[in-house]
Amino acid sequence: MYTVPDTAVAPRLDAYHFHEQEWASHEQLVEAFEWEIPDEFNVASYTCDRWAEESPERTALYIRDDPHGRGEYTFGELQTAANQLANYLESRGVERGDRIGVNVPQKPEAVVGHLAAWKLGAVSVPLSTLFGTDGLRYRLDDSGCVASLIDEATIDVYRSVADDLDDLGTVLTVGDIDPRSEADEVAFWDALEGQSTEFETVSTDPGDDMTIFYTSGTTGNPKGVRHAHRMVLGHLPLFASWFVSMEMTDDDVYWTPASWTWMGGLGCVLLPALYYGMPTVGWNKQFEGADVFGLIEEFSVTNFWIPPTALRMMMQNDDLADQHDVTTSGPSRAVASRWAAPSSTGFARRSRVRTSTKATARRRRTWSSVVVSRCSRSVAGRSVVPLPATR
């Protein structure tokens, strides 16, 4: 039976388990909800340590086409690797408050990199592997990263700008790369060898910096947006009420095509999933609609978040699309309306997934039928106030 552990390192926060109760209506839930922000809160403790302590063999990640030949990683394994990486980084002089770049897509090394940073009290900086020289140089320099994980997809870009990054003294390479020792590059897994598997996660205030996401830079230089550890708590009400439609089971498996270097992939899906002890699928192939159906079946994916453009690509495969139904909200609604098979509740019958602007859910109970409108209802902990129309 699915239960969330209540441990000394991460006491249970009841406010974010409202999905375990029965509510007469959505409005009743919204009115009753109150934020619960503890005096101490470290995301690594809640998304990894408590699960590793209570259920070390519980699956945290599935990796499709895993180059390591594993394909599955447990919470215990993530904690061990994160502890080793934290020890290595500490030996390199990384301290609380330092910035650590994570330039890695949907791979286990990305998760380990973030966890290790937070265990140290450092700040992770997600960096897309799609950046060119200007984009990567600017973000690494502006954030003042003293260490960074660099994926094989970006290693050439990084090396072309490395001489411009005065603060960056530790580089861990991920993937099929021959590290340049003279340039302070070390292979990720080689760095972990010989490091202690024990590391005590530091205590952090909920308001301490956890990560920095950069804007796209469409108007001037990209802006670094600092997010505190409590940011994850802010995502949980939406995740619990809409992504999983008020129900979680040990059969749940989540996925999103959104990169884990983007808020949609890391903040809205992966971290809430780990918080609740649920596995997420990682996959790094270029998105093609037909491939997604195979992934859903291979890993028995129950929930996924997907943007409207990707949903359109899936719908182009008529034979496969006819075998799946979808329920939807947000901008995807207009797209999915040509796909979903209406039921008496207004949601698609036999549906396996529901797409939304921010969250996705599957065949779960709901309080109301779909209403086509420009604005969704507010979720617990948030207020939605329509602004007057302007010209």
Q: Please, could you describe this protein's structure?
A:
With 391 residues, the chain is α/β, with parallel strands linked by helices. It is built from 13 helices and 14 strands. It has helices at residues 26-32, 43-54, 75-91, 108-120, 133-143, 155-161, 188-192, 231-243, 263-275, 289-299, 308-315, 318-321, 332-336, and strands spanning 59-63, 72-74, 99-103, 123-126, 147-151, 170-174, 185-187, 209-214, 224-228, 254-255, 280-282, 303-304, 325-328, 351-355. A 5-stranded mixed beta sheet has the order 2-1-11-10-12. Strand 10, helix 9 and strand 11 (280-282) form a beta-alpha-beta unit. Helix 3 (75-91) packs across helix 4 and helix 10 crosses helix 11. The radius of gyration is 21 Å and the shape is globular. Mean pLDDT is 86; it is low at 341-374.
The CATH class label of the largest domain is Alpha Beta
Element-by-element helix/strand order? HHEEHEHEHEHEEHEEHEHEHEHHEHE
Counted by DSSP, the helix tally is 13
User: What is the count of structural domains?
Assistant: 2
Shape: globular
Q: What fold name stands as the CATH topology of the largest domain?
A: Rossmann fold
**DSSP, total strands:** 14
Query: Mean of residue pLDDT?
Result: 86
Major sheet strand order: 2-1-11-10-12
Characterize the largest beta sheet: strand count, sense, and whether it forms a barrel. Answer: 5 strands, mixed
The rounded distance between the terminal residues' Cα atoms is: 54 Å
> From the 3D coordinates, which CATH architecture of the largest domain would you assign?
3-Layer(aba) Sandwich
> Which class of secondary structure composition applies to the elements?
alpha/beta
What is the gyration radius calculated from CA atoms?
21 Å
Unreliable spans are: 341-374
State the CATH superfamily name of the largest domain. Answer: ANL, N-terminal domain
Strand content: 5-15%
Helix content: 25-40%
